[in-house]
Amino acid sequence: MLVKEYRICMPLTVEEYRVGQLYMISKHSHEQSDRGEGVEVVSNQPHLDPTHGTGQYTEKRLHLSSKLPSWAKVVVPRIFYITEKAWNYYPYTITEYTCSFLPKFSIYIKTKYEDNNGSNDHIFSDEQNNADKEVCSLDIAYDEIPERYFKESEDLRGFMSTRTARGPLLEGWRDDTTPVMCSYKLVTVKFEVWGLQTRVEQFVHKAIRDVLLTGHRQAFAWVDEWYGMTMEEVREYERNTQEATNKKLGILPPVILICEPAVQPVTRSAPPSAPSTPITSEPPDFLGPPKERQRKTSAPETLTLPQSHCRPSSLP
Q1: CA 252 to chain CA centroid, nearest Å
Q2: C-alpha 242, offset from chain centre
Q3: Which of 65, 1, 3, 62 shows the shortest CA–CA distance to 193?
Q4: Tens digits of per-residue pLDDT, 177-198?
């Protein structure tokens, strides 16, 4: 198990980021999806939790076969996806990722949002894994991202919003920018397979870092597109984009609810701690030992000669 706490600051308020995050996730998912590859939305509906109150529950399938490293493709089937389940009680969210093909694999993320520049060192002090974590502060303007994700229009060192007059972000912007907020993410990655655990957990955290940097850069770079939208408007945008994304993937659209919970709301509780391994640990059929097949015989075990119809000759 490898635990890290990521801190990502934004030149926004927590309330502004609530809309910007939903917009960014929907647009980014649509852009990154292609037929057979991308983000499939399974469920998106209001959710009532006895502890955290009213929120939004979403379930997605991340089809990622082509994005795996070469060493992982050796053991992963061609049709491969990760299940994402998220409980959003903003400004507090819980997200978990599991894969039925890899029963020992899971990612568990707790997120809290605050109006500060990442200075709260005790925000997860009540968590069991808090003592073993590594803190990683990410700079959306100056930290490097993979070249394939870089776009000139999303370079925040030169970007200035026309609607908010915020930006460009200069060196040390987190210390002297107003407003500023921070997304605190406590990320637990588990891959309990001997010989591969360290390599896989480090690879997953590297991928998470890249996704967090890219997504938060885009949330601010697209601020002129979503700034001023209400929650109802961004939920409607989310619904339309998700339907378009599923069609792009060649999947029927899911049932998506954006209304308030009914009198009898869903009361499914979010997991209180990191998810356990899935129910079964049996390997897929094609990884198990070969099954015995009934042996076919190419010839009868005994040979019967036909009886002769000739009469024996009489010797003199």
Answers
A1: 20
A2: 15
A3: 1
A4: 999 999 999 999 999 988 989 9
Here the tokens at position 50 are 């006895």
The alpha carbons of the chain give a radius of gyration, in whole angstroms, of: 28
Distance CA 211, CA 62 (A): 13
Token pair in block for residue 196: 């591969």
Tell me, what's the pLDDT at 36?
A: 56
Within a 10 A sphere around the Cβ of 68, how many other Cβ atoms? 14
Note whether 41 and 244 are within 8 A (CB).
Answer: no
Q: Which strands form 181-191's sheet, in the order they lie side by side?
A: 38-49, 53-63, 81-89, 92-98, 105-114, 181-191, 2-10, 134-138
